[in-house]
Write a structure and sequence with these properties.
By secondary structure, the protein is of the alpha/beta class. The chain contains four helices and five strands; from the N terminus they run E-H-E-H-E-H-E-E-H. It has helices spanning 23-32, 47-62, 78-83, 110-116; strands at 19-20, 37-42, 68-73, 91-96, 99-105. Strand 4 and strand 5 form a beta hairpin. The protein is globular, with a radius of gyration of 14 Å. Residues 1-14 and 124-128 have low confidence and may be disordered.
């Protein structure tokens, strides 16, 4: 019998995927990254979060040079939920120099995500 693996549970420690992080890693990542950090606040039991996961992997692969994408599972990060006033999931937040500069609630298709985060992306080089 084969065990089914959900994409949201995979741990890939390479650019081009949304990388899961915990509360301890979170602060270091958002404060030391040379590029904006897109954080997906999600939960294993959340249907829209499961739909958003492959979109974020595709986004992370496409924009790896411009933005780091990480995932924080909210059930294991209550202090971050409170600190950043995360009241619904999925919530996507963009951090620059350790500070939140953009916050988006709800799942989005890739095209909408690109539009919503266009100011952080060098879209001219992607539309050749």
């Amino acid at each position: 019998m084969r065990r089914n693996e959900e994409p949201s549970k995979r741990v890939v420690l390479a650019e081009g995927y949304a990388v899961p992080v915990d509360e301890k890693q979170f602060e270091n990542i958002i404060s030391t990254s040379a590029k904006p950090v897109l954080v997906d606040f999600w939960a294993d039991w959340c249907g829209p979060c499961a739909m958003q996961s492959p979109v974020l992997d595709e986004f992370a692969a496409k924009y790896a040079d411009e933005m780091q994408v990480v995932k924080v599972e909210v059930d294991y990060a209550p202090l971050l939920m409170e600190r950043f006033d995360i009241t619904s999931i999925p919530t996507l937040a963009v951090f620059v120099d350790g500070k939140i500069v953009e916050k988006l609630e709800g799942a989005r298709p890739l095209e909408q995500l690109q539009k919503d985060l266009g100011s952080f992306l060098n879209t001219e080089t992607k539309e050749m």
